[in-house]
Amino acid sequence: MNHKLKLLSIGSLVLTLLSFSDTAFACDCMGTRPPCEAYWQAEAVFIGTAKEVSWIELEDKIENSTFKYRKPVFHFAVDQAFRGVNGSQVGVMAGQGDGDCGYGFKIGERYLVYAYRDNQKKEMLYTSICARTRPLREADEDFEYIKGLSKASPGGWVFGEVFKSGRGPEGSLPLEGVKITVEGQGKSDTVTTDSEGRFHASSLPEGSYKVRVAPLEGLSDRSNEREVKVADRGCATVTFWLEVDGRVSGRVLDGEGRPLSNCYVMVYSAEAANRYSGFSMSATTDDQGRFKIGRLPSGNYNLSVNYDGPSDEQRSELIKSFPLFYYPGVLSADQSGVIVVGESAKVEDVDFRLPAMQERTIEGVVLWPDGKPAPNAQLTCFLHGGRVRPPIKIDEQGHFLFKIYEGVDAFLVAQIELEKGKWMRGELNAAEKGDLVGVKLILAPRKNN
Q1: Contacts of 317 (CB under 8 A, 6+ apart)
Q2: N or C: which end of the chain has fewer CB within 10 A?
Q3: pLDDT of 311 strictly over 80
């Protein structure tokens, strides 16, 4: 791509994303926090009337370019300050809406504002539609909490919900009987979810806590622990999403039964049109050739293995790249075996044995258009539609010779740069099977120089 055009493209993209906000590239709220949590997380909470709006100029740096943009600042007459505001007036940046989550204040209307310090302008406050900021007439729940603070008992609380993630028509379901441990500040409480999947731990001293879930048998969580901060007379909310934990585990072995490390194993739905459509999960084998793939919903699956060969031999004459294999060790997807995973079932000891592979030879010369050898050309072999192997040696006579495995397709590219931006190039598509001897790669001017 032309450098100038590339710079303009980047600039256009960045301006589109950044012109509205330095705090978020796209509006993606994770849900509004309840008053008991939002009140203590905000750095300013007040009731105010929006009087006027001005604009502030900000800038961001991307690589070596600086991009400037503007954001609106709404000026409020402070009617009542609860936290973080001194004086009768305050300005709050609010964004322009859409991608930057900007809040659409209306001049003359009264609001309960939850505001935070801006990342760039530390002296400025900002708010968004992701905060609990709202018109005063819609803030009854907030006022009930704020007014009750003076009479509330000391201590905070942690509450939340636990769900089973659903892929079927029933969707996600609340889970009853899940144990939750809340630990911190010298205190450890264990509570259990009710029939609605809810839990609650109270009378917690102010400070940080680790909230852990103990998944039910057959379920798992990507991270079974969350860390939260609890203010005195405040709260923290936590939601856990547990997934069905069907598992497939086993080993990948070579033709002689030896374990193969660094193999890419993919489990994918047997009903999918191909490996990359529908549901799939993957893992890489360890030093003992073992793999374990979890969080699989019940269903029928195929397994495939990509293997590039031992890393310490990749620069030998034999280009160590194997074809794509399917369980239990076949080259055709149509012959692939099916592995059945039940609800939260464990399918273990799946041995994926790769067949012994036959080598084949690719040999030839790289020549200039007049038939003279081109020993200075660079010869590259692309395997399986993109994987690149180390450059192949060309001798003084332009001759090359290397070996790959049967079943591996190869695309050869020989090229040399005459001067900056001007290339000579020769190409060859090698079939997946059989030796290829006496190949001639004739260099020709590369199109679209």
Answers
A1: 401, 402, 403
A2: N
A3: no
CA distance 400 to 18: 52
Q: Which CATH class is domain 246-353?
A: mainly beta
Sheet strands (E) in 26-147: 44-62, 65-83, 89-93, 110-117, 125-126, 134-135
Cβ atoms of 69 and 20 within 8 Å: the answer is: yes
Strand partners, 214: 179
Q: Considering the entire predicted model, what is its pTM? A: 0.62
CB 247 within 8 A of CB 267: no
Architecture of domain 3-150: Beta Barrel (2.40)
Cβ distance 240 to 214 under 8 Å? no
DSSP single-letter state for residue 394: -
Q: Does the pLDDT of residue 55 top 50, yes or no?
A: yes
In the block, which residue shows the tokens 């790769």?
354
- What is the Cα–Cα distance from 143 to 136, expressed in whole angstroms? 9
Give the mean model confidence (pLDDT) for residues 260-280: 87
What pLDDT is stored for residue 217 in this prediction?
A: 81
Q: What is the 3-state secondary structure (H, E, C) of 155-182?
A: CEEEEEEEEECCCCCCCCEECCCCEEEE
Categorize the per-residue pLDDT at 172 as very low, low, confident or very high, splitting at 50, 70 and 90: confident
Mean pLDDT of 62-83: 89
Distance from C-alpha of 394 to C-alpha of 377, rounded to nearest angstrom: 8
What's the pLDDT tens digit per position in 19-47? Answer: 333 333 456 777 789 999 999 999 999 99
* Residues 6 or more apart in contact with residue 346 via CB below 8 angstroms: 246, 247, 249
What whole-number distance in Å separates Cα of residue 394 and Cα of residue 402?
10
Q: What is the pLDDT of residues 374-385, one digit of tens each?
A: 999 999 888 765
The two three-digit tokens of residue 200, written as one number: 């609650």
Measure the CA angle with vertex 227, ends 226 and 230; round to 5°. 125
Contacts of residues 183-187 at CB distance under 8 Å and 24 or more positions apart, as own/partner, are 183/209, 183/210, 183/212, 184/208, 184/209, 184/210, 185/209
Report whether 362 contacts 401 (CB < 8 A).
yes
Task: Using the structure block, give the residue that is written with the tokens 């402070």.
Answer: 78
The whole-number pLDDT of residue 84 equals: 94
The residue extents of the domains of the chain are 3-150, 153-243, 246-353, 359-445
CATH 2.60.40.10 is right for the domain spanning 359-445: no
- Rg of the chain, C-alpha, whole Å: 31
If 0-12 CB within 10 Å is exposed, 13-18 middle and 19+ buried, where does residue 98 land? Answer: exposed
Fold of 153-243: Immunoglobulin-like (2.60.40)
